[in-house]
Design goal:
The chain is mostly beta strands. The chain is built from 3 helices and 31 strands. Strand 7 and strand 8 form a beta hairpin. Helix 2 runs antiparallel to helix 3. The radius of gyration is 28 Å and the shape is globular.
Amino acid sequence: MSDRFSKGILLSASLLLLISAQDTIAQPVFTSGDFATLDDSFIVSSISVLDIPNHDYAATGMGFTWDYSDFNPISQRHVKFTDPNITGFRAAYIFSCNGICYNDCYNTCVSSGGFPLICAGTCNFNCSSTCLTNWFTKFDLAELANDSINLGITTVEDIFNFYDISQDALSQVAVGAKLSGFPIVMEYEIPDRVYSFPLEYANKDTSFSNYSLKLDSIPGTGIPVSLVYNHRQQRYNHVEGWGTLITPFGVFNNVLKLKSTVYNQDTVIFQNDTFALSQFLPTQVIPESSVEYKWFSPDFGIPLLSVSAWVIDGNLVYRNVEYIDTLRCFEPFSVFGYQPFPAVINQDEDSIEIGFYSLSVNGNSFTWDFDDPASASNHASGSNTIHTFSEGGVYNVQLVTCNTQCASQICDTFSLPVIIIDLSANDSTTGTLTQQKEGLEFSLSPNPFQDRVLINIKSRNEGIMNLQLVDVTGKLAAEIRAMHYQAGNHVYAIDLKRLPPGIYIACAVVDFNRTFFKMIKAPVSYKN
């Protein structure tokens, strides 16, 4: 072998080693410590649906450059990881967890020869402690999913994802949502392992997860139903590329690309008959499988870019593209939600804490007015906040969302009646609902009602009456404004034939005395 040829081989080997070493150094690693923590907030931009198909998201490789600098953003939202305790779902979780735990514990105890009363007391104590411990140890982060699903017979909205984060993984442990306005928490029996840490090039992992929901009646209506919803999921993660990502936000050289393929199996057992969810829901609502592409940088707590797609008939149908961005001058749209619901004053503390969360888009300034001037903190700022109410009633809470990035600040205002129930003031839910003040007696009947409600006012003096009937979502269902009445005994009838069966809150202001009642509209088949 000639010296020249030998030198050529050595030089080639040295270059390969050098390139390999450079590749190894350049490849980033994303650990659990790089992921977002409590109160971390990010602005993400969404691109136009028409613009989504104009880009290749599947392309990948080592030392790859993904150039999406021509994205055209059309709207923005805040992504924020909040304390699960301020979402308002803790009570719903404890209630649900206690029920499942207690039934299993009690049945096991009694079948093993335990005395029923002792089993009941022991299980109640142990389950309460276990469920509270689970909440504080497993529920580390909460993220508003900003989504809703219309199931026809009911609506699922204000969906929160709850996560447990450890050195090894980010796992989704539960889903919280409003079902027909009522909070429910569906805890994973086996959590969804969203990310396995650390994320490194060529890493692969797979995980199985599942949860279920059982309903004996449709929340908010009292209509009996036998429904079980089962969700099973298989997730495949593959860190399939690394390199440079370019978006309108900037150029990022130390980026990992993760591909997640998720297979879903959703079934419903309705009135003891089993259906695949796709049999009576469009595939676009809950597809059987989906693909997600995410680009991570250790310098940012969430993906720099996220792309999600449904798999329909074997084809990828891209549905959403979001990337971290700076605030832009878009017209804000203000809206918010709150928990818990129903909001019932704690009799031991004579108050209730309500967690408010903004669902607004295109804003960076948030100002709250709780319509509670008697409190020490009637106003607040920030996208998420808490307010303590000490009296029952209907409060017209207001959120003003502004975008300060524009040359002239642009704002939008949203108001929502928040119902605070004080059961110590009026705990009656049947027959005639009566409120008495000096020289004044006011009542509503019958309860439950069907076609109409009778208002009976007995007063020594003339006065003004206002009455609002609000459904469980806070929507105004019926109203009487500034009706003048004379001294004496008077009966007025309200025609409520068009109202659907369900639970309603009647807020009455009679002669400047405000009170409220819980009322039920019964189905037509109901007999007093």
